[in-house]
Amino acid sequence: MLLNAPIVSFLAIAAAIISLAQPASAQTFDKLTNKAKELVAPITGNTDDRLQEVATFDHQVTGVAVSEDGRIFVNFPRWSEDVPVSVAEVMDDGSIKPYPNNEWNAWRNAKMSELSPKDHFVTVQSVVADQKGSLWVVDPAAPNSEKTVKDGPKLVQVDLKTNVVKKVYPFSLEVAGPASYLNDVRIAPDGAFAYFTDSGSPGGLVVLNLGSGKGWRVLSDDPSTQAEKDVIVETDGKPLRRPDGRQPQFNADSIALTPDGKTLYWKALTGKTMYRVSTESLQKAETDPGVVRPEKVAETEPTDGLWIDQQNRIYLSTMANNGIKILGTDGKMTPLLEDSRLRWPDTFAQGPDGTMYVTASHIQDSPWFNQAWTDKSFTLFKFAPPK
Fold it and tell me: The pTM is what?
């Protein structure tokens, strides 16, 4: 394939920079060469016209939700920085508005002794619209994914008609302990239960009775909710490692609920095995934990987001190739798209017209794995699902 003139010029400049460093040690030369490759990659990377930008953000975005009338919401976790907004509505011009108001978004790490974690967003990980007038906000309340803030872990229900918090569901220490990290949620179609993954320690599932407000852990520290030790997360063609050489070990993360609300799917991010279980057993587990028996569904690869559409096709966001794949009802995995802009595709949502939305959270570019941010092109994308 022929390179166009701008790319050739860029390569020439990169080569010149490297040559100016001579004489230099082999180690320095390798570092400069690799840096040049990193700079060129965004230019030479592949793009897919089906993936369209909806909005760009100044801070790392993870969750996205689309209401029944097409309103779009996103969240910004308090991971590597003390973000100014935790939950926001994306306006028509691409700008964001703190949601449901400024006060709920007023938490700052520096003010944690001044503000109550019970009625402020501490570290929001995901947002979900139930298509019945509510936005649900998952707050594991663990800045930088470290120890949870006392009285902070909660699920918040916001009335989309009035834009007012309708109810707050706090979690006890028995459900969300100091090392927990509630990751994502799915709301039952009848509005009776909420189901969560906990990617903290120990990994597990959490069930919340939305009527009584009581929650309980399920499959806590079970192999089905733990990172698989022999699985290596790869991005950019190499194993993902922290600066000290550690491999990331993410427990139960991805979660999806069938349209009829009868079956829950999940998998560990650092894992290849997808599991499922009946929601009836999860509900009964309040008094009979042994009734929950996870079933292996498929062997995939390390993935982050899951979504099940009305045709019961399962969408998976794949970090290794900046892509999206679909697991069909026949058990076959089919690549849907790959795009170099989709660095660490994270969470899915589906709009009322069927349009799919996905965030790019750039986790591999974050200070967790580098000395500083190497790419801050935080973007919300959309694409049309296949027929």
Answer: 0.88
